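User:
I study polymers; will you set down one protein's sequence and backbone structure tokens?

Assistant:
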Amino acid sequence: MTETLEQTLVELINKTETAGDWLMDEIPEVIQQLLIWKGASSFLLWVTGVALIVASVKLFKRGLKECEQGGYLYKHDAAPAMIFIILPATVGIIMFFDCTTWLQIMLAPKIYLLEYAAQLMK
């Protein structure tokens, strides 16, 4: 009985060592894939924010041009249309400044990983 128990324990220890070796071999690739995923998703959000800002500025300039050319009866008639310019611009500015994880990953990936691990520990 004790012989089979010892043999089972030895097999279990060997399997644990094998799994630990496999994990140690895979950790660098997992970290690289995590950095690529987080960086790409953050960069796409940042680009979306930039696009919203650019589109809002162009729409604002177009609205001003129409006001000057008499496209609206009065300048205050353009005010409701400005909400559709201000809201995307605000969202774009927030995305522009909030989604800079890609930049941190490019400049200091080790610091990002430390902060990410600390965030996971909370």
Summary: Helices lie at 2-68, 79-98, 101-107, 109-121. The two ends are 45 Å apart (CA to CA). The chain has one domain: 28-121. The CA atoms of residues 80 and 86 lie 10 Å apart.
